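Why do we care about 3D structure at all? Because function follows from shape, and shape follows, mostly, from sequence. That is the central idea of this module. The next example makes it concrete: a single protein chain, its amino acid sequence, and then its structure expressed as tokens.
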Amino acid sequence: MKTLLMAGMMALFIPAGGFSKDSPAPALHVAVFEQSGVAPEVLEDAIAIARETFHKAGIETDWSVCRSTENLSGRCEPPCASVTLSLMLEPKAVPPGHAGEPKGKILGFALREPSGRPLPVAYVFYGTVSRVTGSIGKNAALALGCTLAHEIAHLMGLDHSPSGVMHAFIDDQDLRLVAAGLGFRPDQIKVLRAGLPVLLATLPVPLRR
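And the structure:
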């Protein structure tokens, strides 16, 4: 069974887990606004998978998680001003403009300006990820990590591909590639590395909720 994996440009990077003193300074900061109810351990594992996927491509990422339930005002502000990308982790939804997509199978989507320029924001729907991966007996953290990496990579210039992280439909083969550290092809890694400086130089001020 295959599940539609839409590109999500609303990925938020917020540090989760931290880095040792000997680790290289992260080049990309991500803040995850968690409002889906995902178990903390599942999200922690998913972030570790996404981080490792980018690490294998030569890109270091720094992640943090902000849970709306921890803020009585219902607002979830980034913990620091250095956040570059934002990812909204929601239960489930079908975004406006995607009425033609298979309902209940959209795992996430990326935002773009009318000009096509990526915005620093993506959405991922954990309820859909969990339900679909559960139906094929796959680990939810692995699928969520793959989806997070997918949406972030869209922000860095990658389009869909026949397999791996950027496959438009998540399936067994894609998850096996990610688990083996082969989520991105060599040509995609070149695009990611070339696009990172441009991304960091052109991104607008991080969004606030």
